Amino acid sequence: MLGPQRKDGLLVIASVRAVDPGANLDAIVDIVVEGGTITRIGAGAATKEILASERARVISGEGLLCVPAFVDLHAHLREPGQEYKEDIASGLAAAAAGGFAHVCAMPNTRPVNDTRSITEAMIAKARSIEGPALHPIGAITLGQKGAELVEMADLKDAGAVAVSDDGRCVTSSAVMRRALEYAANFDLPVIQHAEDHALTEGALMHEGAVSTRLGLRGWPRVAEDIIVARDVLLAEVTGAKYHVAHVSSRGAVRIIREAKARGIRVTAEVTPHHLTLTDASVIGYDTACKVNPPLREPEDVAALCEALADGTIDCVATDHAPHSSLEKDCEFAEASPGMIGLELVVPLLLARVREGALPLARLIDALTAAPARIVGLSAPTLREGALAELCLVNPEKRWSVDPARLRSKSKNTPFLGKSVTGSVELTMAAGRVVHDVWAQGEVQAR
Amino acid sequence: MGHHRGRIHPGGNVTTTPRARYPHRHLLGIEALERTEILSILDAAESFFDVSRRSVRKVPTLRGKTVINLFYEPSTRTRTSFELAGKRLSADVINISVSTSSAVKGETLLDTVKNLEAMCPDVLVIRHQASGAPHYVASRTNAAVVNAGDGTHEHPTQALLDAFTIRRRKGRLEGLVVAICGDVLHSRVARSNVLLLRKMGATVRFAGPRTLLPPAAEALGAEVHDRLEPALEGADVVMMLRVQRERLAGTFLPSTREYSRKFGLNEARLALAAPDAIVMHPGPMNRGVEIDPAVADGSRSVILDQVEAGVAVRMAVLWMVATEAEGEPIAGA
Q1: Hey, how many other C-beta atoms are within 10 angstroms of the C-beta on A106?
Q2: CB–CB of B216 and A209 under 8 A?
Q3: B231, containing H or E segment
């Protein structure tokens, strides 16, 4: 499914623009990958001898961009329990197609990933697939019920990289304080879904002029801001690593900026959809635009983009949330929140780079080194001797977001049927090719 | 007024098709309507108004057409009004009441609609607790869809019958000052009314406690007041909204007593309005809460006129959406 994965092969990417802010690299270079490792990188690295090798597969990098493969801190892969929406295999295939080498999976599976055995089972399943690496995120509380802490040390030993009750906010200040203290004991970041549920009961979209016009109950910004403000105070008291999931409001951006200025250990992520869409997309009651936290107003989008550009928001995370027609082909109030995102990061965010809203180097950092640092993974990088985890992007290639092209089992995105610019042509994870449009061309012809 | 009479009745010459004057397949909300289309509906309603006052209250206009009233929320007034409107046009009318609890256990809205569609109705009149439900249904059915109230979004036929009543009493809509008072936050009547009245050139004022005013309410085109008095000052029309019993004690409002004392319409407050102001209420009323009985039953009340107008307006709407354009089936319109 994922194309040829010869780890012993010789891959040459000739004359490509390589961008890796972590390696201080933005230049036209040749990249030589042998045995899953970047063996040579630089102008003229592909010598005549290498190019002449019978083993060599040579890709012309002209017009392409080579960047470190991406790291997603926030995906819902739905396995175990809701495999009709997505499973680890389809989710990782979507991740590979989107340029990712590492995917952190949220614990709101059925059952919830709150024990070592589930974490281990997820990792074992992912290893059997040989795609991008899967890093489970354990729950903070048993069953994500917000009351009793999970065995965080055990989860970490099993391979969990963080804890989160994502989808549910840890609303109790006492539970959150203890969670931060205990997680800090084992150096696990705590990822908060910041939503004061008492302020969002029955909420269906962002609270504002559009929700008033559509008669849909509003989810006010302040419900996010209150939790972020409280949590940064708790993070300060406990010294724990606190990470805010899917920041959506300009108020939360301001609180995070101030907290960072005061030296508190807070990090934050933003989704591609919150960087590109506003609440106006909900007009017409398109359930694909129902997400949690909701799409907000143009001034929030501007504030989020600015915060990502200046580093206040550390990274981009997809909040890839697959849902089937059972959850989305219905009246707006009934629909489950969420949209898929793994395969659309590159086109959506390169558009913001082209507009001048986001420097390319910052975007690459926000997709690679920054998220890896938050959860303690070694970041994909374009350096000699590094494991080959990279992707080749054609920034000018237009493609149509057809259901048949998407690897995700679910097709819940408002971009379905739309034409977008920017395509991931090849992805390598852990030294293997896990996505390859050229190879897929051969598969289709077979 | 009434200049369309004869054109549309049997034996009369139909010089304009309803479709030509109402180029939509459905009536989902006031938002999508042009001023001229609103006028067409109101004019057509004038033509139908007398039908209900005759000894034989029926015309054959929609003979052979089928109208299904699909109500997911309890309703007496609106459902009866649509039913009578259909029957007085000679349509076959079926009423389906779906209690929320059985819908939860049973099939999806889409499946219900697809099953009904298989029986070839011409018009689906739908009331649903989810805002946007009629829009969703309209995107998935060949029948014409009429929104009889969706969640806290719109109630277009209520706004049309209110406009009809105001126009009959005042002779115009343009230039009037209309105060819409009470639980604006949860009111689809308020939303449809402000949209319609603004399109027709009226000034709209919302008034209510801040807990019951929608966020960014001024974006709907209304002036917003948190007390009744400034909104009533010189108003030509005072429209009181029902406040739901369950909101009268809790976090929205402390008590019925305080609500009626500060936000109820009584004779003293009504005296602030224009001397010839009319009083409206979409019903059902909470007597003694948002409206004093003396005002509800007083000479300026047009509350029962609204109910009578409802049948004529719904006849006009059903006629417009159910009548095929010449040589053009509804499905292709």
Answers
A1: 29
A2: yes
A3: helix B228-232
End-to-end CA distance of chain A: 13
Residue A272 and residue A249 in contact, taking contact as beta carbons nearer than 8 Å: no
Helix runs in A334-422, H state only: 345-354, 360-367, 369-375
How far is Cα B302 from Cα B308, in angstroms, rounded to an integer?
A: 10
Q: Where are the beta strands (DSSP E) in B154-232?
A: 177-181, 203-207, 223-225
Cα A237 to the center of its chain, rounded Å: 29
Token pair recorded at residue A135: 């890093």
Provide the β-strand partners of residue B247.
none
Question: What is the number of H-type helices and E-type strands within chain A?
Answer: 14, 18
Q: Do B272 and B229 meet the contact criterion of CB atoms below 8 Å apart?
A: yes
Distance CA A196, CA A180 (A): 18
Q: How far apart are CA A435 and CA A429, in angstroms?
A: 9
Inter-chain CB pairs, A–B, below 8 Å: 67
Question: What gap in Å lies between CA B304 and CA B297, rounded to an integer?
Answer: 10
- Whether the CA torsion B129, B134, B139, B140 is positive or negative: it is positive
Distance from C-alpha of B286 to C-alpha of A369, rounded to nearest angstrom: 62
**How far is the CA of A415 from the CAs of A232, A281, A347, A402, B243, in angstroms?**
35, 11, 11, 9, 41
pLDDT tens-digit series, residues B265-316? 999 999 999 999 999 999 999 999 999 999 999 999 999 999 999 999 999 9
Backbone angles phi, psi at B160, to 5 degrees: -70, -40
Whole-prediction pTM: 0.93
Cα–Cα distance, A188 to A181 (Å, whole number): 10
Check: CB of residue A114 under 8 Å from CB of residue A81.
no
Sign, Cα dihedral of A169, A171, A172, A177: positive
Contacts of A284 in chain B (CB under 8 A): 135
Q: Cβ contact (<8 Å) for B109 and A331?
A: yes
Q: What's the rounded Cα separation, in Å, for the pair B321 and B18?
A: 8
Per the rule left: phi > 0, alpha: psi between -120 and 50, beta: everything else, A65 is: beta
| Alpha-carbon span A55 to A153, nearest angstrom | 46
| CB hemisphere CA count around A207 (13 angstroms) | 17
- Minimum Cα–Cα distance from A216: chain B residue: B131
B129/A333 touch (CB, cutoff 8 Å), yes or no: yes
Q: Looking at this protein, which amino acid is placed at residue B227?
A: R
Distance, CA of A331 to chain centre? 28
Kindly state whether B155 is in contact with chain A, defined as any CB-CB distance less than 8 angstroms.
no
Q: How far apart are CA A98 and CA B217, in angstroms?
A: 41
CB atoms < 10 A from the CB of B242, how many?
19
DSSP structure class, residue A271: -
Helix intervals (H) in A239-297:
250-261
Instruction: Give the amino acid at A136.
Output: P
* Complex ipTM: 0.91
Q: What is the CA radius of gyration of chain A?
A: 21
* pLDDT bucket at A442, cuts 50 / 70 / 90: very low
Per-residue tokens: B260: 């009626």
Q: Indicate whether B330 pLDDT > 90.
A: no
d(CA A176, CA A163): 12
For the question of residue A8 being annotated catalytic, the response is no
Instruction: Dig out the tokens for A355 from the structure.
Output: 């507009």
Q: Which of A94, A101, A78 lies closest to A342 in space, CA to CA? A: A94
Instruction: Report how far residue B78's alpha carbon sits from residue A220's, in angstroms, rounded to the nearest whole number.
Output: 33
β-strand A315-316 against A390-400: which pairing, if any?
Answer: unpaired
pLDDT in tens, A343-386: 999 999 999 999 999 999 999 999 999 999 999 999 999 999 99
Of A204, A207, A284, the CB nearest to B215: A207
Indicate the length of chain B as a whole number.
Answer: 333
The helix/strand/coil state of B327 is: coil
* Contact between chains at B154 and A213 (C-beta distance less than 8 A): no
